[in-house]
């Protein structure tokens, strides 16, 4: 045996060695497992064996066969088609939101909506609820043409192909720049033609956006004012319940009102009761039995005088402070079911289909008669700020009158049942809400400046009353068949904030406290229920308010 660098190399011909000419160091292998000759280790023993094993690990032998070539890279990239919703697999699973996180989430969503409205002019509510677009969503964003003549820009994400397409087809369907001209400049001649009409329109309409002094657009203002009160809690029970035996269950009557003097008037059969909001004392103002019964009540806007409509068609004015009648006015031939004040003018609607305007300072019983309705007038509401009167009747008609004109300014016939519930918004000019009866079951909101309907809400039950909040941009509705509930609505989103339950029959009557903090509801179950819904912003003093019955006031 020869020695080579401390390794013993066999010289026997029975041991076959495979040599590789490409290696600078030849490695000896024993390919004959049944050979009688074994490798002999020199006298250094185990040390050489360990050194050889380390040397073999450092210089592995070349393989006898070439490795097959593979088309795989050094990283694994999965192949997925475009229909795979990757965002669903990687979306963080949200746990239950704490009150703080919920408010933060609502604030973030509102800010995102506001920012989108300012940048893209989009106020679509669907974006608020789905911040991540799914692969099947088609998103369209358009920028309106400006006066510089730049044409519209349209960015569209196409619907991805189905899962049967291969990865090569996915690359072909990748969104690309549209082939149309992105920036298209008009010639000076065309530009003058296109801008002439716009300039004329701007000059004719002072309400254009370019004349606005607000840092945000009008659409964004509506979004800000329509902030949702999702976390708001409404009372589950009323804070006071009063028995009202004999409270009529007639849909066409108005037998409950809360005056600025903080006194609640309610008619039970032929008697009128006064409940003091300060001392909670109850007083009987008058008993009309047996000659007549009460069909409507309405407090004057300032002062302690109460208007009372009767079944015989007369209208009486009472001083609640002294419980004495000041005057009686005739004019109707049948019962008076609706009353409404506009300063010193009292308007009354009767079953004779007529509306009468009365100046309580003048000796005449009335000075104007409106005859547009074809059936009983059951709803009347003045907008004193704009001198507009809204009337609703059993002929399913809603009419808007300009001051004391004999013909209506607008006549809406969109309801399919009697219109008793009417209320004006104290926060926006010309916004009117109306509600229909059992066959209609809808609340409709109108823009009386344009004569158009803004919203149509299907409530699922008879709408008996509507009343706008003095403190917040919300309105209350009371319902009869089949829900018998009280609902609170947000405007302009017209979303339901909450529901008040407790009455077991139709909620036919509704009134609000003078400070706008509480409401009282009356139902055919002969109960009056008091609810605290709003926070009072200011305190009103009845002693400092002037009355239209003040002798120092002059007749205009």
Molecular structure report:
- The chain has 556 residues and is of the alpha+beta class.
- It has a domain at 240-535: Methylamine Dehydrogenase, Chain H.
- Helices cover 13% and strands 30% of the residues.
- The strands form nine sheets. The protein has a four-stranded antiparallel sheet with strand order 5-32-31-30, with no helix packed on it.
- Strand 28 and strand 29 form a beta hairpin.
- Helix 3 (99-120) packs antiparallel against helix 7 (218-225).
- The longest helix has 22 residues, at 99-120.
- Keywords: Cell cycle, Nucleus, Phosphoprotein, Repeat, WD repeat.
Q: What is the topological layout?
A:
Layout: E1 2-4, E2 7-9, H1 46-58, H2 86-90, H3 99-120, H4 126-129, E3 140-143, E4 153-156, H5 167-172, H6 188-204, H7 218-225, E5 240-243, E6 256-258, E7 263-268, E8 271-276, E9 282-287, E10 294-299, E11 305-310, E12 315-319, E13 324-329, E14 336-342, E15 345-350, E16 355-359, E17 368-370, E18 377-383, E19 388-393, E20 398-402, E21 410-412, E22 419-424, E23 431-436, E24 442-447, E25 452-458, E26 463-468, E27 474-479, E28 486-490, E29 496-500, E30 507-512, E31 518-523, E32 527-532
């Amino acid at each position: 045996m020869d020695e080579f660098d401390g390794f013993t190399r066999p010289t026997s011909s029975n041991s076959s060695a495979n040599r590789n000419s490409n290696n600078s160091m030849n490695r000896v292998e024993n390919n004959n497992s049944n050979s009688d000759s074994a490798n002999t280790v020199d006298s250094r023993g185990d040390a050489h064996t360990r050194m050889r094993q380390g040397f073999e690990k450092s210089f592995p032998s070349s393989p006898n066969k070439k490795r097959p070539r593979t088309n795989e890279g050094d990283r694994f990239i999965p192949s997925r088609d475009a229909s795979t919703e990757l965002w669903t697999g990687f979306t963080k699973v949200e746990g239950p939101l704490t009150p703080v996180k919920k408010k933060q989430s609502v604030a973030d969503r509102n800010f995102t909506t506001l920012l989108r409205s300012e940048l893209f002019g989009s106020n679509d509510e669907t974006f608020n609820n789905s911040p991540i677009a799914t692969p099947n969503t088609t998103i369209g964003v358009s920028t309106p043409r400006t006066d510089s003549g730049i044409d519209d820009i349209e960015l569209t994400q196409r619907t991805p192909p189905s899962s049967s397409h291969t990865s090569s087809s996915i690359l072909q369907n990748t969104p690309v720049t549209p082939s149309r001209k992105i920036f298209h400049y008009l010639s000076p001649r065309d530009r003058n033609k296109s801008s002439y009409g716009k300039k004329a329109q701007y000059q004719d309409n002072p309400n254009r956006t370019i004349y606005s002094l607000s840092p945000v657009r009008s659409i964004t203002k509506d979004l800000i004012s329509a902030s949702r009160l999702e976390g708001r809690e409404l009372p589950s029970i009323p804070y006071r319940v009063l028995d009202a035996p004999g409270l009529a269950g007639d849909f066409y009557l108005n037998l409950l009102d809360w005056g600025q003097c903080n006194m609640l008037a309610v008619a039970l059969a032929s008697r009128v009761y006064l409940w003091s909001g300060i001392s909670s004392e109850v007083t009987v103002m008058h008993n009309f039995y047996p000659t007549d019964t009460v069909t409507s009540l309405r407090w004057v806007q300032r002062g302690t005088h109460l208007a009372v409509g009767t079944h015989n068609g007369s209208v009486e004015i009472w001083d609640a402070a002294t419980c004495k009648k000041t005057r009686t006015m005739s004019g109707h031939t049948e019962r008076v079911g609706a009353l409404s004040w506009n300063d010193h003018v009292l308007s009354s609607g009767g079953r004779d289909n007529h509306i009468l305007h009365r100046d309580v300072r003048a000796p005449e019983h009335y000075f104007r008669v409106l005859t547009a309705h074809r059936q009983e007038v059951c709803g009347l509401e003045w907008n004193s700020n704009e001198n507009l009167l809204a009337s609703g009747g059993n002929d399913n008609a809603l009419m808007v009158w300009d001051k004391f004109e004999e013909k209506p300014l607008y006549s809406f016939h969109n309801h399919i049942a009697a219109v008793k519930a009417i209320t004006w918004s104290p926060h926006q000019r010309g916004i009117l809400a109306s509600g229909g009866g059992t066959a209609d079951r809808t609340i409709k909101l109108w823009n009386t400046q344009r004569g158009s309907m803004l919203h149509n809400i299907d409530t699922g039950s008879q709408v008996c009353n509507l009343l706008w909040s003095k403190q917040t941009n919300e309105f209350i509705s009371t319902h009869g068949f089949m829900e018998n509930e009280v609902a609170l609505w947000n405007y302009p989103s017209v979303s339901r904030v909450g529901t008040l339950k407790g009455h077991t029959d139709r909620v036919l009557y509704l009134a609000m406290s003078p400070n706008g903090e509480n409401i009282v509801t009356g139902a055919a179950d002969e109960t009056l229920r008091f609810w605290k819904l709003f926070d009072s912003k200011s305190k009103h003093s009845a002693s400092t308010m002037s009355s239209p019955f003040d002798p120092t006031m002059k007749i205009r």
